[in-house]
């Protein structure tokens, strides 16, 4: 296990979905298929914070679900610690499940509305066969680890703020003692002022626990700041990858350039807009129209 | 005072609370009918026939001199029992089938279940009830050592007919819950699908089922009354609101109004009560109504 | 610099929510001005009262909330206490609104062109042909290509950005004087967000509509707004031209907000944050509500309410603003 490369690898992952069409077409077997993930290969080093950037519909969430094995890829291999996870034995499957956890976008559905926070964490620990007094102690230390007051254990999810709910989501994942944490848009539902708190928490966990983090976001600025490696995804493919500075300041792919150009930049953006007029924006209108045309 | 307010909140507001109170009183009086009813509902007394309501017979007497108030109270037993047991049957099997369809989702079995349920629920309930009672007859059915009374038949039939609606309701809310992130998180903890269905999904889809079940109690009362009214349900001399109404119909022209008005009023009151209760519970379970807690945004 | 009688003038607006048995002020005395044709940004965290302030103008507050005092003078008329009928008329004609989720504003079973057409024919004296021509013009203005074909599309057939454009076209079809945009780009991708911002900018330029733009991102506000009002705990804590707020923010909250915006620069290491949480709307506030989270707070801030510091065109509510 000394080798750090090959810790977590995706090899030529594809995920296809059949488009729903009429009954006749389905019977003929000719239902067209669309690839949400179209041949993605990635290698993630142990202890890295790996950033995956892309916009909605680019396949990044599908990829996240493949990484944690909520769905199986149509083709390709997920390799964890040198073993193909599709061929693990039952006992190893369980270990993999616990080792690779996920933090979801806080849309209000990431916590069961009928369960108090204590129960959410207790159930996670119970899945690891930690119960009773040991569980109580661990719940307390989990809450401390994510910076939440133990008072909140008695609350229901709707009685917490978005940032607090997201911390509970992280605590729930940590309860499984994971090695890899996939965070799918963990801050996009939060206020700008709170985003940093969650991102910093993830980055602290990376440093203190050696947790490998795969941070998925549409926000290039956030990802570039904390990640050691980033990859940009568009239409199911990785279009650019590298160190954050390199991607940010020397992008080679036109899509990456457009993504960078779209980030609001305050007064600078204002003068840019006023200087160039609406024409500058019209130039950027192309991709959505293409997507729109593709949806027809 | 504070407790009362919490109680009103539990029923989703004053209207729901009123519905709950009326429904509760009806239930109590039907359970304790032997204590509450002033006379024997079956005791014939030809000398006292067709008396107008007065202080001894608050709701008057019928053509055989039986006390109408006592018959209304005893009649609530047949009505509530039929409606109640039908709902129990409907909820039990409906929820089970709905969850099962969710469990086998994505396969042909799910499709088959849903198509059958849709086919059954495309025909109105009352038509089913009358058609089936018509087929199976009004008399008790002997089935080996078992005697199936016509009330029991009605209960089971009504219950079976409730199943599709409740199953589809459960299925639709369960499908939404199964796709949510908290369920994904449970899967990542290695918890089995069946366990997730019962411990996480089921509690979150019960609220619409409870609301629907309450409204179905009201429907059950009406169906029982309608079926008994046309002579296919609860058989005389056992009183039920439906067959009392049916009997009272013969005396409307001759002016003995109390024979129809009181059982009719009982039906209306009960149906209104259950509807108020159902609407109240719907308001309570709807998360959009539970403001003032948490953060205002 | 500002005309004597602005298009919209909000004075001492208080909005309260029922919390248990008592009414609690969530918006606690907001003053706001929007001149004709001006774009004003309203920024704050969730729970700051920015959305409630916006919703109170066309009086579409959520159930449980009410305006408890204050005046909302729009085009010379006080909208608070205006009869329902007069208010409805205003809402349809002079004040338009777009939301974060366009699906809530669009009817799912009617083609989008038809929805704009119906709205125009209800609110304006306009003929069939003229209305169709105007819809085509509006759809083109909001950046929809092939507007003639797109008019027949149903809302679900359009992408999120397209729906936002259609909703904007619907909103401005009645030639309103004020467009309220409540976080219109929060649910959108960055590239689409840039397009929608461009579209709003074009609309205010070409139609001369005043816009009240609500967002939690100051950088976004700076791109299209002339002035910005920063809200915290139900009050405007700083208000000025975008240039001076960015160049010399007077309120520590504004400074911290500016610091928190993720920017594409060479910085690494922990992201700047504002520690703690905004106060809950049902908590009692003593002194400056931002003091518990403020790194410059002194004892004075914690005990007594800060004064309002004013300079021509600039306002800040802080003890140390001067």
Automatic annotation (TrEMBL), chain A:
Pfam family, one: ABC_tran
Biological processes per GO annotation: transmembrane transport
Sequence segments annotated as region (Disordered): 270-296
Keyword flag Nucleotide-binding: yes
InterPro entries, alphabetized: AAA+_ATPase, ABC_transp_ATP-bind, ABC_transporter-like_ATP-bd, ABC_transporter-like_CS, P-loop_NTPase
Keywords: ATP-binding, Nucleotide-binding, Transport
Transmembrane segments: none
SMART domains, per database record: AAA
Molecular function GO terms recorded: ATP binding; ATP hydrolysis activity
Highest taxon of the lineage: Bacteria
Occurrences of domain ABC transporter (ranges): 8-260
Family: Belongs to the ABC transporter superfamily.
Protein name: ABC transporter ATP-binding protein
UniProtKB/TrEMBL annotation, chain B:
Name of the molecule in the record: Peptide ABC transporter substrate-binding protein
CDD domains, per the entry: TM_PBP2
GO biological process terms, semicolon-separated: transmembrane transport
PROSITE patterns linked to this entry: ABC_TM1 (PS50928), PROKAR_LIPOPROTEIN (PS51257)
Keywords, in A-Z order: Cell membrane, Membrane, Transmembrane, Transmembrane helix, Transport
Protein topology in the membrane: Multi-pass membrane protein
GO cellular component: plasma membrane
Keyword Transmembrane: yes
Presence of the UniProt keyword Ubl conjugation in the record: no
UniProt record similarity statement: Belongs to the binding-protein-dependent transport system permease family.
Membrane-crossing segments per the record: 7-32, 80-104, 116-136, 156-184, 205-234, 257-278
ABC transmembrane type-1 domain boundaries: 76-278
Compartments reported by the entry: Cell membrane
Source organism phylogeny: Bacteria, Pseudomonadati, Pseudomonadota, Alphaproteobacteria, Hyphomicrobiales
InterPro entries assigned: BP-dependent_transpt_permease (IPR050366), MetI-like (IPR000515), MetI-like_sf (IPR035906), OppC_N (IPR025966)
Organism: Reyranella soli
Domain of life per record: Bacteria
């Amino acid at each position: 296990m000394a080798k750090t490369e090959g810790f977590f690898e995706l090899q030529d992952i594809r995920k296809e979905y059949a488009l729903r069409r009429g009954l006749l077409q389905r019977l003929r077997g000719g239902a067209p298929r669309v690839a949400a993930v179209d041949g993605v290969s990635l290698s993630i080093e142990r202890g890295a914070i790996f950033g995956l950037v892309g916009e909605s519909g680019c396949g990044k969430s599908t990829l996240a679900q493949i990484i944690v094995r909520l769905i199986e890829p149509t083709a390709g291999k997920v390799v964890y610690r040198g073993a193909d996870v599709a061929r693990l034995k039952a006992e190893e499957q369980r270990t993999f499940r616990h080792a690779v956890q996920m933090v979801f976008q806080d849309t209000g559905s990431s916590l069961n509305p009928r369960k108090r926070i204590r129960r959410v964490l207790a159930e996670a620990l119970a899945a690891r066969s930690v119960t009773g007094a040991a569980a109580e102690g661990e719940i307390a230390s989990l809450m401390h680890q994510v910076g939440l007051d133990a008072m909140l254990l008695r609350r229901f999810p709707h009685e917490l703020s978005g940032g607090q709910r997201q911390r509970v989501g992280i605590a729930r994942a940590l309860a499984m003692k994971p090695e890899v944490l996939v965070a799918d848009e963990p801050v996009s539902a939060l206020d700008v002022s709170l985003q940093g708190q969650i991102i910093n928490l993830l980055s602290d966990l990376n440093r203190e626990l050696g947790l490998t983090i795969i941070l998925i976001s549409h926000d290039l600025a956030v990802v570039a700041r904390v990640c050691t490696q980033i990859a940009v995804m568009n239409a199911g493919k990785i279009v650019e990858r590298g160190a954050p500075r390199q991607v940010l300041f020397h992008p080679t792919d036109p899509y990456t350039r457009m993504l960078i150009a779209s980030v609001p930049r305050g007064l600078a953006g204002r003068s840019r807009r006023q200087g160039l007029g609406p024409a500058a924006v019209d130039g950027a209108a192309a991709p959505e129209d293409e997507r729109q045309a593709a949806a027809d | 005072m504070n407790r009362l307010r919490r109680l009103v909140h539990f029923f989703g507001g004053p209207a729901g609370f009123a519905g709950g109170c009326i429904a509760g009183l009806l239930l109590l009086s039907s359970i304790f009918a032997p204590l509450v009813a002033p006379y024997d509902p079956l005791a014939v007394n030809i000398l006292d026939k067709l008396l107008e309501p007065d202080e001894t017979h608050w709701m008057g007497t019928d053509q055989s001199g039986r006390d109408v108030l006592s018959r209304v109270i005893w009649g609530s037993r047949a009505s509530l029992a039929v409606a109640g047991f039908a709902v129990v049957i409907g909820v039990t099997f409906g929820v089970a089938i709905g969850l099962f369809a969710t469990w086998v989702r994505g396969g042909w079995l799910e499709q088959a279940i849903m198509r059958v349920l849709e086919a059954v629920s495309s025909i109105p309930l009352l038509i089913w009830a009358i058609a089936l009672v018509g087929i199976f007859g009004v008399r008790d059915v002997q089935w080996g050592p078992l005697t199936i009374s016509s009330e029991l038949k009605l209960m089971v039939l009504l219950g079976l007919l409730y199943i599709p609606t409740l199953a589809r309701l459960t299925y639709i809310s369960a499908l939404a819950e199964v796709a949510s992130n908290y369920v994904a998180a449970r899967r990542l903890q290695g918890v089995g699908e069946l366990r997730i269905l019962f411990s996480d999904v089921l509690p979150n889809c019960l609220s619409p089922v409870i609301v629907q079940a309450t409204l179905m109690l009201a429907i059950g009362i009406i169906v029982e009354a309608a079926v008994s009214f046309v002579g296919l349900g609860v058989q005389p001399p056992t009183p039920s609101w439906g067959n009392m109404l049916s009997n009272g119909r013969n005396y409307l022209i001759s002016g003995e109004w109390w024979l129809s008005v009181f059982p009719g009023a009982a039906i209306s009151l009960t149906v209104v009560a259950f509807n108020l209760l159902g609407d109240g519970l719907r308001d309570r379970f709807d998360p959009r109504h539970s403001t003032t807690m948490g953060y205002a945004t | 610099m500002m005309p004597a009688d602005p298009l919209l003038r909000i004075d001492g607006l208080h909005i309260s929510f029922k919390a248990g048995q008592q009414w609690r002020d969530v918006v606690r005395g907001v003053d706001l001005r929007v001149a004709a044709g001006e774009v004003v940004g309203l920024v704050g965290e969730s729970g700051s009262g920015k959305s409630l302030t916006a919703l109170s103008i066309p009086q579409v507050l959520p159930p449980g909330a009410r305006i408890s005092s204050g005046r909302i003078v729009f085009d010379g008329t006080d909208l608070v206490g205006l009869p329902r009928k007069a208010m409805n008329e205003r809402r349809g004609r002079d004040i338009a609104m777009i939301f974060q989720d366009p699906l809530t504003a669009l009817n799912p079973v009617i083609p989008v062109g038809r929805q704009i057409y119906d709205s125009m024919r209800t609110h304006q004296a306009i003929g069939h042909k003229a209305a169709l021509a105007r819809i085509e013009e509006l759809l083109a203005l909001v950046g929809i290509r092939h507007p003639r074909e797109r008019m027949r599309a149903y809302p679900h057939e359009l992408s999120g950005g397209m729906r936002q454009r259609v909703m904007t076209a619907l909103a401005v079809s009645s030639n309103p004087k004020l467009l309220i945009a409540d976080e219109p780009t929060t649910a959108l991708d960055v590239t689409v967000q840039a397009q929608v911002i461009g579209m709003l900018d074009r609309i205010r330029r070409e139609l001369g509509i005043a816009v009240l733009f609500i967002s939690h991102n100051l950088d976004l506000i700076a791109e299209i707004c002339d002035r910005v009002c920063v809200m915290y705990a139900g009050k405007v804590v700083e208000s000025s031209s975008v240039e001076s707020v960015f160049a010399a923010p007077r309120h520590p909250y504004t400074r911290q907000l500016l610091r928190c915006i993720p920017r594409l620069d060479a910085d690494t290491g922990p992201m700047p944050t504002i520690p703690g949480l905004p106060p809950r709307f049902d908590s009692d506030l003593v002194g400056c509500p931002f003091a518990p989270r403020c790194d410059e707070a002194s004892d004075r801030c914690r005990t007594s309410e800060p004064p309002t510091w004013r300079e021509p065109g600039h306002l800040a509510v802080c003890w140390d603003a001067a």
